[in-house]
Amino acid sequence: MAGISVGAAIVVIALCVGGLSVIDAVSGVRDRADDARETRAVRDQNCLDLELRLNRLTPPGATTSVPARAAAIRNENEAIRIYLTQVADERAQDAWRRILDARTVYADTSERLVKSPTQPFYLPPKNDRGVPLADDLLEWSPQSCAGPIRRLAAPDL
Q1: With b meaning 16 or more CB within 10 Å and e meaning fewer, what string describes 25-55?
Q2: What is the pLDDT of residue 32?
Q3: Cα angle 61, 70, 65; round to 5
């Protein structure tokens, strides 16, 4: 009789431990889902903030002179640098930095050749498959970043 009682107690304890494990696992999944939602919301807001900063600036294509275009590109680059401090994904950071570098080279070269009959072409950086990095950023970033990415990918327009 004592053996049956001990066995029953062990079964009850095992069921309680198993039930608590299931509750803990469900709670962990819910917490991770909440964290992921919050992270997405922050990333979306960061992209919207970038777009707001860019909308306060004159786009390079709306300028009337080479020095003004170079200044507009540099101003947009500053907006990107602020955004970069908020990007956690290292591959996205690297892609943004490469785009920043290409934009800076384009602005510097444009200014150096201001009196030259030929003007430089903007060469968008590409990944190792030959695809523009802006395409990768469109894939890796929230939808709210699509407008800023397209705008920043073409400083020569």
Answers
A1: eeeeeeeeeeeeeeeeeebeebbebbbebbe
A2: 62
A3: 60
Read off the tokens for 3.
């053996």
| Residues whose CB falls within 8 Å of the CB of residue 91, separated by 6 or more in sequence, listed in order | 136, 140
What is d(CA 64, CA 139) in angstroms, rounded to the nearest whole number? 33
pLDDT tens-digit series, residues 81-92: 999 999 999 999
Is 90 buried (19+), middle (13-18) or exposed (0-12) by CB count in 10 A? exposed
* Tens digits of residue pLDDT in 35-52: 566 778 889 999 999 999
31 Cβ contact partners less than 8 Å away, ≥ 6 residues apart: none
Q: Structure pTM? A: 0.74
* Pick from 49, 51, 54, 38: nearest CA to 86: 49
